[in-house]
Amino acid sequence: MTDLVVPGYRRDPGGTHPPLASPGYGSTVLRAPHQAPVPLPHTLTEITGPVLGEGRVLPTDSDLTRQHDGEPLGERIIVHGRVLDSDGRAVPDTLVELWQANSAGRYAHARDQHPAPLDPNFTGVGRCLTDSTGRYRFVTIKPGAYPWRNHENAWRATHLHFSLFGRAFVQRLVTQMYFPGDPLFFQDPIYNAVPEAARGRMISSFDLSETEPEWALAYRFDIVLRGREQTPVETS
Amino acid sequence: MSFGLTPSQTVGPFFSHALTWLDGPDVVPESEPGAFWLRGRVFDGAGEPVPDALVESWQASPEGRFDHPDDPRGAVSGFRGYGRSATDDEGRWGIRTVLPGRVPGVDGRLQAPHIDLSVFARGLLDRVVTRVYFAGQPANAEDPVLSALSSDRRETLVAAVAQDGYVFDIRLQGERETVFFSV
Ligand SMILES: [Fe+3]
């Protein structure tokens, strides 16, 4: 009989994720659970996960400037990087989803009431699959900063939202990518809820090598998901 | 060599236009024998519905198998196993699925049928993870995860029978707070 006792994934080390109860971010106050989470063993349900993609991603989904008849307003940028696990192994063929505000800081979402213009040529939604070496690449426009009502004169640091599946339920991650040198970092409690030593991992780096001359600047954002407890034997 | 993990961040309030798929709730097609709806609502610590949450599900097929290369018994192709549903203004979510089969646990013994859920929302800086078990399943009594919980906490993980399937409400905080797991 096949041995069904399978190696799990390494647990998150401390100092990585923001505590759910982070009162500086007002919406956590009634939503963060009060009870401590119960450790769940990594069984087959947890070490597997949805393998999505085929048929779900069109080539045009990764270019957010080409989804409408006209071009969106704003500064065109390339956002690219690799999805890795914490052992540095590529996470290939995994779905990456991206969503963001337009260049004026407004989401194409019915509930966004920020009085900044919508852009008829920008939905701000993209998706792609990583290639066999874990690489992904989007073309989009740089989002604008936007105000929110969390505290007096609160503005979110400029960000892109990212959603990743990895290859296992335990690797699922939703995060945000920031831009280097943003003057809004100091007053953004969502960014600052992350332990200080790990915050910089959410900041992309300007990447001259991937810019397209006379077309677009480029930023690199590598995303690291949890690795296995034991290195699995390569079968191919 | 170890690479530092990317930290989690909230999905924020404005994700539903990006993460909602037409077929998101369809873990199985309507025609699937035994298909039912697993529905519920998400509530905050004041008992108010959460209208900006995303619930995702992951489960085995009725045979207890996964369409995944890491299943040592071999991948069974064609069973999606995954559902996603954003909550509506009343905090309601729902997926169309089937009862999962029993899946071996870490000691090789079979677990009771269960579905893993991730809940994302504005105000959740990281997802919270819970498990749905099903009322009336004899295997619940011997499930190692359920058995380790006190009886009142265990109850929060057992979906109740409903007209067209099962109901599983999620209480993020406070009285009858759902059991959440660290994975
Ligand atoms: Fe945002």
TrEMBL record, chain A:
GO terms for molecular function: ferric iron binding; protocatechuate 3,4-dioxygenase activity. Pfam families: Dioxygenase_C, PCDO_beta_N. Residues 1-24 are annotated as: Disordered. Keywords: Dioxygenase, Oxidoreductase. InterPro entries: Intradiol_dOase_C, Intradiol_dOase_core, Intradiol_RC_Dioxygenase, PCDO_beta_N, Protocat_dOase_b. PROSITE patterns: INTRADIOL_DIOXYGENAS. The keyword Iron does not apply. It comes from the Bacteria. Residues 79-107 form the Intradiol ring-cleavage dioxygenases domain. One of its GO terms (biological process) is 3,4-dihydroxybenzoate catabolic process. Belongs to the intradiol ring-cleavage dioxygenase family. NCBIfam families: protocat_beta. PANTHER family: DIOXYGENASE, PUTATIVE (AFU_ORTHOLOGUE AFUA_2G02910)-RELATED, INTRADIOL RING-CLEAVAGE DIOXYGENASES DOMAIN-CONTAINING PROTEIN. This is Protocatechuate 3,4-dioxygenase subunit beta. The lineage of its organism: Bacteria, Bacillati, Actinomycetota, Actinomycetes, Pseudonocardiales.
Automatic annotation (TrEMBL), chain B:
One of its GO terms (molecular function) is ferric iron binding. The keyword Cell cycle does not apply. SUPFAM superfamilies: Aromatic compound dioxygenase. The keyword Membrane does not apply. It comes from the Bacteria. It holds the Pfam family Dioxygenase_C. CDD domains: 3_4-PCD_alpha (cd03463). Residues 32-174 form the Intradiol ring-cleavage dioxygenases domain. Keywords: Dioxygenase, Oxidoreductase. NCBIfam families: protocat_alph (TIGR02423). Belongs to the intradiol ring-cleavage dioxygenase family. This is Protocatechuate 3,4-dioxygenase subunit alpha.
